[in-house]
Amino acid sequence: MTSTLTRAAATKRILTPSITLGGHGDLIRSISYFPDGQRMISGSWDKTTRQWDLKVAKQIEEAQYVCKEVRAVAVSRDGRWIVTGGGDWDSAELKACKVGTRTVRTFEGHSRKITCIDISMDNTLLASGSDDETTRIWNLNTGKLVAGPFESVDLVGAVRFPTDSKKLAVKSLVRMCLEIWDVQSQKLDVRLGDFRVKSVEHTDAPIFWTNNDKNIVAAFSFMDDHCATIYEFDASTLETVGAPFKRHTTLFEEPTKVVTGLALSSDHTLLVSASYNTIRLWAFESRQLLASFNVHKPNALVLSPDSRQLAYTTKTKDSYKICVCDIPPDILAQASTSVHLQGPTADPQSTAISPVIALPPPPQIPSSTPGSRLPQLCSDPRELLPSSSHTHTVFSAHNVQPDDLPPEEALQDLSKYITKDGEYPVARGGFGEIWKCTLRIDSSLVNVAVKALQVYADDQLGPAKVKKTKRIKRELRICAKVNHANILRIYGYTYGFGPFPAIVSPWVENGNLTVYLEHEGAALTLVRRFQLLRDIIAGLQYLHTNSVIHGDFNGPNVLIHGDGTACIADFGLSLMYSKVISASQASWTSTLKGNVRWMAPELLVEQEDGSQVRPSEQSDMYSFGGVMLQVLTNKVPYYHLTNDARIIFCIAKSETPSRTRYPELPEQYWQFIEQCWSLDPRDRPLTEKADTTIRNEFSSLSRSH
Predict the structure, then answer these.
(1) Segment (H or E) for 359
(2) What is the pLDDT of residues 97-120, one digit of tens each?
(3) Domains of the chain (ranges, CATH numbers)
């Protein structure tokens, strides 16, 4: 049953922006979040695109002049590509830029300006709609045309792939038509609308697939409502499904002529629409109007990846702005509770895996069957796609009581759902092997990394194996409580990779920092390098704030997601390994291999009782100095030495890397690195000071560039 709020109730709400971004000189036609929810890109008729840091509410770098008129921008879901489209009546410009590099793909074929774009869920295909009345599909990685042109009956206003990219929905800009095309056969499945009649007002509001890609949501006109009504259509027939959303009205309850913007939350519970001086929020399933806000001429609008923020563009006289607002919690709660308990998407036993940075969108987990408990990796998408409005979980690894830990179910055994992608591990480190695997949930696949812990013969497992296994799970449950954008998450554990549980984490596409710099280092700007350092020190500060020591901080333990975000991995693993699994000399020697060049000298010193000095916040900061040197120069500490024994000898003699080997490094950066390398651990900067220093330098460089 459809219900709406009264006019009085709806107009009482105030939508106050938490962030306002200004700088464009003309209408802002398109905005898009990065997957981390902390950055945004915008495109304007002023011929530029701009990137924004939502944490500090500032432009990251100077405006990029892209084309004659920027009409569409998008960021791929793995964060690797930024796509821009535009042009004019006589030309089209469509480009994709690989994040963090200077790689640019140009897509040629359209004859008039690009009006809309969409990137497939698997980040391989790009759809573009144009004023030349065609839609084309491209390979995003090669720039080659793979399907089309699909000839429409009008200027194209919106395009959208479903999850499997087998179809393409296309909506016209002026004449009211909606089309579904089959991508493989390149034939039209069905078309709705009278293309001989033009709408009084046109709309390029996006369209969305819903109900497991069976339906389409669009602002549409049946000739008498001027595109001010939102309908849900059956994608196979384009017949309407359920009740429409009540048409937009002005402050005086007069009907508006057009819906200018649409946004749908990732879980399909909240729909946001924009029209003349109005933004409305709806419970999608029930069609209930949850709130109506008076907003001056909203145009493009988008929801953040976690669907807790709303961003929209607006024009006031000669001022063009982007406004970012936190959606009131009561509205989010109402949207969730308004879902009809029908169908698989509303089954309380069915839960979606949260989207992972640099991985595909969330697959659906089917209902449980007797005797088979299916995994729930994460119930809150904010945990993996944080935004500036999200407060990180805070915990202390010291004195953790059993009641403070997540329940056993929160760190789940994923063995039934893990498949190796090859016969051999993709990497070996000090603590074990890394396997690339696939996590299979129903018909959906997610790439994951599985870390198998090494065990040596002289560890004498025997009866202690059961006890050690329990201890490992307890340590992993502590690690699983960590929730920060710059810390690699732990999904759960799996068996079949050795005598102990192996750790399951997201697969990070760009690999570790050392590998990333080998491939991309030559093209990185100084701003980009400090962006990496900002991420790294933020993750380390979070650990130290919560009394967690990394213990093995180095370049290989910093991973780079597909969108360029850096995160820290393997925190606390060295302590867990030495305390729980192995105290053998073989394991100690192995853990040093390859990573010793970042190690603090005090860790090589034996105490009076013969035991090793334990890692500390200060030893982590010594290692950060080496990581900072690596990020700024593309060279690891002691890069000229390949023998670990020689490196250990230098560290034991307190011989830090020589300044003369890094002549290109500015002096002020070298001085800070030397502070991190102070022989007296008490003289090393705390992570809080380092974080402030790095952020200030990043902001200064961003403004100057």
Answers:
(1) none
(2) 988 777 888 999 999 999 999 999
(3) 7-337 (2.130.10.10), 393-704 (1.10.510.10)
